[in-house]
Amino acid sequence: LDRSSHDGWYPEHILPRIACPVLLLQGNPELDALLSDSDLALAKRLLPRAQHVKFPLLGHALFMQQPKPVLNEVLRFLASLE
After folding, report:
1. What is the pLDDT of residues 1-58, one digit of tens each?
2. Of 44, 48, 45, 46, nearest to 24 (Cα)?
């Protein structure tokens, strides 16, 4: 709540160093998802190989709320790496 978990987190320094493909799964921030639209925009700008999937009807616990669509997206992402 006090955002202390963000201490030392500098995405502008850390994210550009990630060279591998990244899958960003985003729930709906209005349903308590943690990845906001502004955080997503920053991540997509800093991660050169990022792919993004938004689940507008899901919140923070994507895989617990609707495991099948989340798994399908993860499998699709992994298959794209072959």
Report:
1. 566 777 777 889 999 999 999 999 999 999 988 889 999 999 999 999 999 999 999 9
2. 44
Q: Which residues contact 12 (CB under 8 A, 6 or more apart)?
A: 42, 46
> Secondary structure of the chain: what % helix, strand, coil (to 5)?
50, 10, 40
Largest CA distance in the chain: 42
How much is the pLDDT for 9?
77
Exposed / middle / buried, residue 18 (Cβ in 10 Å: 0-12, 13-18, 19+): middle
C-beta neighbour count of 42 within 10 angstroms: 14
Q: How far is CA 72 from CA 19, 36, 63, 64, in A?
A: 24, 22, 11, 14
Question: What pLDDT does 54 receive?
Answer: 95
Q: How far apart are CA 10 and CA 6, in angstroms?
A: 8
